[in-house]
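Hi P.,

Sorry for the delay on this. The queue was packed all week, but I finally got your sequence through. Input first:
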Amino acid sequence: MINSKVQIDLVRLSAQYDTIFSSNNNLRDSDSFYRWIFQKLNAQPGKALVDIACGSGRLLYHASRAGLRTIGVDFSAEALRLEREVAPSSDLVLADGQCLPFPGNSIEYVASLGSLEHFVDVERGVQEMVRIMRPDGLAAIFLPNAFYLADLIWWVWRKGRSPSHGQPLERFAAFADWAELLERNGLKVCQNYKYNFMFPRSRLDWEYYRRFPHKLLYLIVSPFIPFNLSYSFLYICQKAKCPSK
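Then the structure:
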């Protein structure tokens, strides 16, 4: 059960994210990013996919077009309003990712893309993913690197500041630190990938880079960035098998 202090924090955070999404800063990545995530998850048609903290719903859009039953969860009503416009066939649930309203062992695919690091209780968030996943299910979890090379040069070395993604509550960690956190709370990391932005392949991609032109510079240097100094990491996970007694 979430204690009262955490509940107060969630109410405050929810209101802050309503403001963020209503200001047209909808915290999304390029369209090719969501297609890449969906490709790595290798989700099969007819199965259920839950996107936790779904934001504006671009992953759900691609999953629903591929024939999956899609469910978007967010504690921001404004985010769900945007999601309804992007992926109208998806079911929407206004809920906190730390207390998901789904039965245990019921969902084939779970996604958490750049959201877990903003939870009040990160470990509780992972445990909830594990609880709702079917034994043969998969999770796609995307998390930020504390040691992204461009941040180290621009923010730390030049300005003496820590990196920021401009959200109310943020956490960053190294690749192995995130993997250990996921596995400590019931997941097994099966595959992992680095992410350093993607070359634009569509009109929506070009619109994204037009809004954030500085990320084109990150894209240009991305082939030269080592794995452990990448912008973020994608973890494809299964439920950890319980040890035999």
